[in-house]
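[09:14] KT: can someone run the structure on this one? pasting the chain below
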Amino acid sequence: MPGGIVRRANLDMLREKASAFEESAFHGLFHFVRYIEKLKKYEVDYGEATASAGENVVRIMSIHKSKGLQFPVCFVSGAGKSFNTQDEKKILAVHGSFGTAMKKIDLETRTSKVPLLKKLITKKMHEDALGEELRIYYVAMTRAEKRLIITGVSKDFAKLSENAASSGTDFAELSKCGSFLDMLMRAYYTFPGVKDALTLKVVTADDLLFAAKKTEYERHLGALMKLTGAIEDGDPDTVAHIERESAYRYPYMEEALLKGKMTVSEIKALSHSEEEFGEIVTYEKEPYIPAFAREEEKIAGNERGTIYHSVMEHMDFEKMAGAGKEEVTAYIDNEVKEGRLTPEDRKAVSDYKIRTALCSNFAGRMKAASIKNVLHRESPFVIAVENDILIQGIIDVWWEEDDGIVLLDYKTDRVPEEEGEKVLIDRYKIQLDYYERALLQTTDKKVKERIIYSFGLGKEITL
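[09:31] RB: done, structure tokens below
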């Protein structure tokens, strides 16, 4: 039976637990079953039983657990791990024979000094800890009957070997060692007879990587050779399997290519074969741009759009709707003073375009909505659509009127004046469709009007 020895050991362990339970204050099968149920409830796990030391198995255990046991071959791993010296670094040092000592702190000069007693206690603690480490590794090295393999990792083995070769094995030198591997290398280079008794093998990271790739290559090569032989022999099952696997097509590939969560801009890009990235579009024939507007080219189109959105997001429409040139300039300059715009951002903003927007019809409607406290700006949303895909986005502006919701989206695209309205509608209709759907789901109110305000054209576009 596969794993029969371990299975039998598990049954033996169950019998031992039952016998021990019978000797307690509770007796009988009923109480034992209740005891097992509580062990499962509180996730108490005694682990799996292990086979005896004489069986043909590999056992992994701590050095303390191995005490008193013997094995034909032993691996002692982690020899390069640094000794634990955390207790020596504490402010307060405690020793059973020497008492306690701590750093002397001068509050006036804000300095600290280590008294002689603390240095003595720290040194004694280090020696005691080192002695305990040696005792532990003595146990580890005496468990093997035939072969002992010690492994350790060093960040700079060449430097470790150089230091070990130039150092001695007396107590003063060994007390400076930071790991058991350090001690072992000093003994290897300086202690008579150790080189003859030990075989030193250095394995680099490249060697391990090469060995792993070689094993993988041999495994694939073996499988390929086996498959090739079956094909050459004309095995019908193998040939049919290859043809079936080659012809297979995953039936849900379209769904697999979709993201679990997408932005409205990504959905819009999927819906158009030719779509711009950002809000600036390049045409074969550029429209005429006045000199004052060309200065904005220092900032990319999508960045300019973000700047205009920021200005309109913080705009106080109750005061600024229908504002004059001086008021608009003063407001934008104040945005720089308040830190919401940088001086570079200020150069990208056209006072004329902002004033034109504030004198548009929508500005008066937004003023009325703000007075009624039903004006909402930069509203984030997440909605679920087909195939359980989540759509996220941010609605620029929407407000409530008596007969429904009005949705407004700012656009800074530079488009031709003649056909600009059609270009913007074709480009952003899907985006506003999702905005309308989000508002319907979140407010349960109908969107009666959808507006695109184009800063480039200086006009409202109703969809």
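[09:33] KT: thanks! The chain has four domains: 1-57, 71-197, 205-247, 261-462.
[09:34] RB: yep, looked fine to me
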